[in-house]
Amino acid sequence: MRDLSGHRKSLGFLYLFVHTLMLAGTGVLAYVTAALGFVAAAGRSAPAMPVWENPLVLAMAGIFVVLLAASIAGLALGLGLVRGRPVSKGLATLLALVALPTFPLGTVLGVYSLWFFGQEGWDADLQEA
Questions:
Q1: What is the pTM of this model?
Q2: What is the C-alpha separation between 53 and 40, in angstroms, rounded?
Q3: I need a surface site. Which of 9, 63, 90, 129 has the fewest CB within 10 A?
């Protein structure tokens, strides 16, 4: 059985990097959505309608929540891998499959993650401790 501890840390840092970028992009998306919502609401001559009643703002809020949850899950998984803690193979596989279409970083993360968690001894160092 191969020693995969180096790959474990590398994959953890890759998860941290990609999902930190994803979290930053999610913050920018939330800011732009809020700004556009307020600008659109201020430019109307009709009676004032709360911004959150706009269906487009609601859709963007839903996308924001999903991206935020995926970012936090990826950061938690990355920290677990770097620190050598037990991690969920199912969560890692789900995040890898979702990341595959996001070329180039997500594709690298997805392929590397699927390869790592497909190896026989990916959790061997945790069982010995």
A1: 0.83
A2: 12
A3: 129
Cα separation values, 83 from 10, 38, 40, 62, 126, Å: 11, 43, 46, 32, 11
Contact 7, 116 (CB under 8 A): yes
Q: Are 73 and 23 in contact (CB under 8 A)?
A: no
How is residue 61 written in tokens? 């809020």
Residue with tokens 């109307």: 44
Three-class secondary structure assignment of 69-86: HHHHHHHHHHHHHHHCCC
Question: What is the rounded distance in angstroms from the CA atom of residue 9 to the CA atom of residue 80?
Answer: 9
Position 20: which residue type?
T
Query: pLDDT tens for residues 10-46?
Result: 999 999 999 999 999 999 988 988 887 777 767 666 6
DSSP 54-123: SHHHHHHHHHHHHHHHHHHHHHHHHHHHHHT----HHHHHHHHHHHTTSTTHHHHHHHHHHHHHHSTTTT
